[in-house]
Predict the structure.
Amino acid sequence: MRQQIINEARTWLETPFHHQGRVKGVGVDCIGVVGLVGVYFGFLKEADIPNNYAHSPNASMMQKQLEKHLQKIRIEEAGIGDILHFCFDREPQHVGFLTDVGLLHAYAQVRKCVEHSYDATWQSRVRGAYRFRGLE
């Protein structure tokens, strides 16, 4: 199942970054990729995916929503198909999937959904890890 999650997430690659976007090939943001992959497999409902938030999400609200809809795990336990919560500046405001290649996420700085290595810089940004409930 974990590889299936990543295979579905990869169908979003190259989708342009668009704040609150939810359409494959047209536009998506980081929470959109994670949420819609969760919906695809029945782990989440579309109503579970946050919308109507600022370009710089409220970090505490984001964390509450992640904890409400996903299972919090220790960062060290994260594996393929799990979701990492990242911090760029002060507070964590970004999410992406851990893959067999590295990290898959809709990344505003490169304006699209990408997959790349999970290097020391990215590892230093991780502030939390989550798993879809029911995924063992």
Q: What stands out?
A: The mean pLDDT is 95. The two ends are 9 Å apart (CA to CA). DSSP finds four helices and eight strands in the chain. The longest strand covers residues 92-98.
